[in-house]
Design goal:
The complex is a heterodimer. By secondary structure, chain A is an alpha+beta fold. In chain A, 21% of the residues lie in helices and 35% in strands. Chain A is built from nine helices and 20 strands. The chains are: A alpha+beta, B mainly alpha.
Chain lengths: 377, 227
């Protein structure tokens, strides 16, 4: 468990956070510029002094009530920032050794070879840091932080300085990292796409406060936060590839916790491989009866559970719970997934939608183009 | 050259070496503070340290003499400590040289320190390096050109100092008569050949120093590794 109770007052800005975050997986701090997410990360690292209490994996790093303050260099954390901040006077290998050498041998849990292999930087070891590309620099910075076997990895917009191609180069390494090292990550980002791909938990921030904290799909499927997500409001769905149709280059995806399946373009994932789908509310339509003679290739049965006003007065956000899996009800993990649909108020009235209405969720196969292939978690 | 001239050369080298050592010891923390402090007093301190650069050396020497003299506060302190008076001693020369050469050491160091990104130091902190560790493994190597410039300029300026040295040290053979004073003596006594020898020596030395600095800085700009 990561406990962060932080309070900070600056001219024109007040940070006030009280969060208990899981010590597993990736927790994203998402919000607009200036909402205080970087300050939270810096305060947890001890690089900035906020009033409050910070506890990571049972270790108290700061507790103002007892006067305890552990300086940053005594906190078992890894910190990666946008600029990478590699040491220009050292080569790649010396950069990796810098942190590693300062960790007592008994506390080293992540072998350097594994880190080097994970981030694919073996061929860069003797290079000067100034000759690296942006993506390579970022991978070295991540490896350098991991080499210290941190109890917590803090990442502040690690991909923000990279163009789309470099981003696509680094992202798979972040996926692999989660799959093979069990180090919890706090990930600051203003890109919902990155968050949807990487995060398991989400802290949604605005103006120095947390608007919502919870599992990623729970927070994303809330209808009371349209301002926070804007045009990108939508859900993330967990699915598995169950069937491949080579004649059309399509795959069938079975949604976790639901009997529903979706057809989407084949992105080359193996059968049974778990994937993450990102489904934006604006790409989802609703109908009160199954449609025929339409190009929409995915129709999923569900029930309206919440309706709420959207950011524009003409629009509404409708949350639909998909049909649960047939058979005995499973555990909490098998909660049927929900999707968000962004509709006009006129459509809502014409269809006579109310809470409890049975509907068909219409998703163009093409809309799953937005789908993000995720990793096995 | 006479034995007296050689003793002036030796004394000058000793004075410059000692002063440079003290200058780095005092100048480094000062430059670090000036480079990092958000204090509102920073311009005042920076100006005070720069003052010897613009003041006539005799003015500086005059005030130092008053401070260190028997009636001055520093003089009273040194006597109370049992060190005795500083004027007309080697220690007095060192103190005066350090103060008059301080800007030549502090400014290059301050610039070198300011060029180091705070992010780089924070990265070192999150990699388990404590404050001293960070200073010696990140700041010093990254500021190495600044340290080199500061050392050379501090040494050279101490060698070239005349006014302050004359005011504080006077002209005592073997004890406070340094090269620049010895040249003055020779010229006053119309011993132009002897003056030529010492003056020529100093020209060669000064040229070598400036050339060295120039070459070092050029190599730094050419090298992609430190770009």
């Amino acid at each position: 468990m990561i406990e962060a109770r932080l309070h900070l007052q600056r001219p024109g800005f007040e940070l006030s956070l009280d969060a208990h975050l899981p010590a597993t997986g990736v927790t994203a701090l998402f919000g607009p510029s200036g909402c205080g997410k970087t300050t939270v990360l810096r305060a947890i690292a001890g690089l900035e002094r906020a009033a409050g209490r910070v506890v990571v994996a049972g270790e108290v790093w700061q507790d103002d009530s007892t006067g305890r303050w552990v300086p940053p260099h005594r906190r078992a954390l890894g910190y990666v920032i946008q600029e990478a901040a590699l040491f220009p006077h050292l080569d790649v290998n010396q950069n990796l050794q810098y942190g590693l050498r300062r960790v007592p041998a008994a506390q080293r849990q992540v072998p350097l070879e594994q880190v080097v292999e994970l981030l694919g930087i073996g061929h860069l070891m003797q290079r000067r840091t100034t000759s690296l590309s942006g993506g390579e620099r970022q991978r070295v910075a991540i490896a350098r932080a991991l080499a210290t076997s941190p109890r917590l990895l803090l990442m502040d917009e690690p991909l923000a300085a990279l163009d789309a191609a470099r981003k696509a180069e680094v992202l798979p390494y972040l996926d692999r990292l989660q799959a093979s090292l069990r180090i919890p990550v706090l990930y600051v980002s203003h890109s919902l796409e990155e968050v949807a791909r990487l995060a398991d938990h989400l802290v949604l921030m605005a103006a120095g406060k947390a608007l919502a904290i919870g599992p990623l799909s729970d927070v994303l499927s809330r209808v009371d936060l349209p301002q926070a997500f804007g045009d990108e409001a939508g859900v993330v769905l967990q699915a598995r590839v169950t069937e491949r149709d080579p004649s059309w280059q399509l795959v069938r995806l079975a949604l976790q916790g639901s009997a529903c399946t979706l057809w989407a373009r084949d992105q080359g994932h193996a059968l049974q491989q778990p994937v993450r789908l990102r489904l934006l509310a604006r790409d989802v339509g609703l109908a009160i009866s199954p449609q025929s003679g339409s190009s929409i290739g995915n129709q999923l049965p569900g029930t309206v559970v919440v309706m709420a006003p959207d950011q524009h007065p003409a629009l509404m956000l409708v949350k639909v719970q998909l049909q649960a899996q047939a058979g005995p009800p499973g555990g909490a993990d098998d909660q049927p997934p929900a999707v968000l649909a962004r509709l006009t108020r006129r459509s809502v009235q014409e269809l006579g939608l109310q809470v409890g209405t049975s509907v068909w969720v219409l998703v163009k196969m093409v809309a799953l183009m937005e789908a993000v292939a995720g990793s096995a978690r | 050259m006479t034995a007296a001239d050689w003793s002036a050369v030796r004394l000058t080298a000793e004075l410059a070496a000692t002063s440079t050592f003290v200058l780095l010891l005092v100048g480094t923390p000062l430059a670090w503070w000036l480079a990092r402090t958000p204090s509102a007093l920073k311009p005042l301190w920076a100006s005070l340290i720069t003052l010897p650069l613009v003041l006539p050396p005799t003015v500086l020497g005059f005030y130092l003499l008053l401070l260190m003299g028997p009636a001055g506060p520093v003089g009273e302190l040194t006597r109370a400590l049992g060190i005795g008076g500083l004027p007309f001693t080697f220690a007095g020369l060192v103190v005066a040289s350090v103060i008059s050469s301080l800007p030549f050491v502090v400014q290059p160091l301050q610039q070198a320190f300011e060029a180091i990104s705070p992010r780089t130091l924070e990265a070192a902190a999150t990699l388990r390096a404590g404050p001293w560790d960070r200073f010696f493994t990140v700041v010093v190597p990254l500021a190495r050109p600044g340290f080199l410039t500061a050392t050379v300029l501090g040494f050279a300026h101490t060698v070239g100092e005349f006014g302050v040295v004359l005011m504080i040290g006077g002209n005592i053979p073997e004890r406070t008569r340094v090269l620049s004073v010895a040249v003055y003596d020779h010229v006053e006594a119309a011993q132009f050949e002897a003056a030529h020898q010492l003056a020529g020596l100093m020209v060669v030395f000064a040229l070598a120093v400036v050339l060295l600095l120039y070459l070092v800085n050029r190599r730094r700009h050419d090298s992609p590794a430190l770009a």
